[in-house]
TrEMBL record:
This is Amino acid permease. Signal peptide: none annotated. The chain crosses the membrane at residues 6-22, 43-67, 79-100, 112-132, 152-171, 191-217, 237-261, 290-309, 315-341, 353-370, 382-401. It is found in: Cell membrane. Keywords: Cell membrane, Membrane, Transmembrane, Transmembrane helix. Gene3D superfamilies: Amino acid/polyamine transporter I. It is a multi-pass membrane protein. It comes from Frondihabitans sucicola. It comes from the Bacteria.
């Protein structure tokens, strides 16, 4: 439970900063807008925007691996790592096809899909408590701290927190809906904090039940841990067989939303002259940014292939950890931006995060980013660095072309970048 509670605390502090910014500047573009208002540096704004885009790609790649693993568990077929990799890649191609046709995700559809995912987690909690009440679980494991021999307690918790943070992200995307919200100064604080609170309660209860029912050694390096928990707590329970398919449905939605966000963000940066123009091409019939979709899908396939063929670390941990790494870096900047923009006054009332919480957020996010305090593997930094290098090269090519005289480089990034 400890890593989820700490991750919730870090997310909550950062949410306060986002709430001050979104109620102060109720416009789209999120972190890119706030960073540009604070620093006005074209390259810094680009980096933050590109990092957010990359986090969508790594998150979708994580979902693709989870989809393939749950499919194997659902049909009760033993699939090797290579086969799961191919299934995950095929799933990403399917997501690309849906993305290419032009999907309009409505709020009602997202609510339905979220409830499907939530039903799976509630199922785990109910079955877990049933096993605990029947004496088929060991509650002593819930408060037992067992650490690897090569890691101290603090480093072990930090490493687990840096991965558990993956479960708390998503609230930062909601600020892009600011212009679609009536009275954001009143609505956003109530809804965002309630959503984070529900998320924390659900995941803490899931972690409690999981560890009580299944020894931690069996959960480690397991790509379908919740299926294992249900099968252990209630062998032969018919609804438990549905859990892999519920998980597949949930991660499919996650992958589609993230890939849509990533491709549209890449398209927006290209359209505004920040990245090469070929990434802003739109299909004549579907009106979808097909080159951006191909580019982001290609990056996702490379990630799935590279991580699947690398025997160094658990695959989901590497991709999920990279997503957390990228977003934690953005969150550290957002917490700093709140302090920088304090001198900027607006004519309407807005949420205030105070002076201490943003500083706590900066320190906490940096603690979970740095290698010696977070316990992250080198693979996560390597993947994040490689993605950023691709972005910097694309930006450099675009900037060089403009400097050669085709047209002047833009002085600022428009607010509607995302």
């Amino acid at each position: 439970m400890a890593p989820f509670l700490i991750a919730f605390g870090v997310a909550l502090v950062t949410a306060f900063s986002y709430l001050e910014l979104v109620t102060k500047y109720p416009q789209t573009a999120g972190a890119a807008l706030y960073v540009h208002k604070a620093f006005g540096v074209h390259f810094v704004t680009f980096l933050v925007t590109f990092i957010v885009m990359c986090s969508g790609i790594t998150s979708a790649s994580t979902a693709a691996r989870a989809f393939a693993a749950n499919l194997a568990a659902g049909i009760e077929v033993e699939l090797g790592n290579g086969t799961i990799m191919l299934v995950a890649m095929g799933f990403m191609l399917l997501v690309m096809a849906v993305n290419f046709r032009g999907v309009s995700e409505s709020v009602k559809a997202n609510v339905v899909l979220t409830l499907v995912e939530l039903s799976g987690l509630v199922l785990v909690i109910l079955i877990g408590f049933w096993a605990i009440a029947g004496g088929n679980a060991d509650l002593s494991r819930v408060v037992l701290f067992e650490t690897p021999g090569d890691k101290a307690l603090l480093l072990s918790i930090s490493a687990a927190t840096s991965l558990a943070f993956f479960a708390m992200v998503g609230f930062e995307d909601s600020v892009n809906m600011a212009e679609e919200t009536k009275d954001p100064s009143r609505i956003f604080p109530r809804v965002m904090l309630t959503g984070l609170g529900i998320t924390a309660v659900i995941y803490v209860l899931v972690s409690l039940c999981a560890v009580a029912v299944v020894p931690i050694g069996q959960l480690a390096d397991n790509e379908t841990p919740l299926v294992t928990v249900v099968e252990t707590a209630a062998p032969g329970f018919p609804i438990g067989a549905l859990l892999p398919f519920i998980s597949m449905f949930a991660v499919a939605n996650s992958a589609l939303i993230n890939m849509m966000m990533a491709s549209r963000l890449l398209y927006g940066m290209s359209k505004q002259g920040v990245l090469p123009g070929f990434l802003s091409k739109v299909h004549s019939r579907n009106r979808t940014p097909w080159t951006a979709i191909l580019f982001t899908t290609g990056l996702s396939l490379l990630l799935i292939g590279y991580v699947s063929l690398s025997p160094e670390s658990p695959i989901v941990a590497v991709l999920g950890g990279t997503t957390s790494l990228l977003l934690l870096a953005v969150f550290a900047v957002v917490n700093l931006v709140v302090l920088v923009l304090r001198r900027d006054r607006v004519p309407h009332g807005h949420f205030r995060a105070g002076r201490i919480l943003p500083i706590v957020g900066i320190l906490a996010c940096l603690w979970l980013v740095l290698p010696w305090s977070s316990g992250r593997g080198a693979e996560q930094y390597g993947i994040a660095g490689a993605l950023l290098a691709i972005g910097v090269v694309l930006w450099g090519v675009t900037f060089a072309v403009r400097r050669l005289g085709k047209r002047a480089a833009p002085d600022e990034v428009p607010a509607d970048l995302s």
